[in-house]
Amino acid sequence: MTQASIGVGVARVEVEVTISAPRERVWKALVEETGQWWPKDFYVGREPKGFILEARPGGRVYEDWGGDAGALWYTVLVVEPPAVLELAGHLTPAFGGPATTTARLTLKEQGGATVVRVEDAVFGRVDENTSPRLREGWRTLMGSGGLKAHVEKQTP
Predict the structure, then answer these.
(1) Which of 4, 87, 104, 126 has its CA 20 to 30 A from that of 76?
(2) Does the structure show a pLDDT above 70 at 124?
(3) Domain ranges in the chain?
(4) For domain 10-154, is the CATH number 3.40.50.11750?
(5) What does each C-alpha distance from 132 to 11, 15, 137, 153 come to in angstroms?
(6) What whole-number percentage of the chain has pLDDT above 90?
(7) What 3-state class would DSSP assign to 149?
């Protein structure tokens, strides 16, 4: 592969999902119950034991495979409960990289519900499929395939 055929640039997406629950409940599910709503088909390991989000600056967002094995998805940059979570991660060649990703998740109360807004930017090796894949991934994670479904199933 020649260097000219590799696209280097920035892909940026924004996704909003409304969850019928108070912001504190959505925040708790986001940072404390991640392993309960993280979709099984999003795991990259063959036999994951769980998905963990350490909600503190410098904390990890990772798959735990047991026995000190796993995959680091992000490092936590900013935690401002119950409103803001900022993350940074790296994409290796196995996942379309080399690239770096930064994501900002904000939770805003709106009429008894919570609007979860995700802003994600990937810079490095990107192509025309990067933005659509990111957008669809975040919609699934935050929406009916992940966080929204988990919270709304448990909220009367």
Answers:
(1) 126
(2) yes
(3) 10-154
(4) no
(5) 9, 11, 8, 28
(6) 90
(7) helix
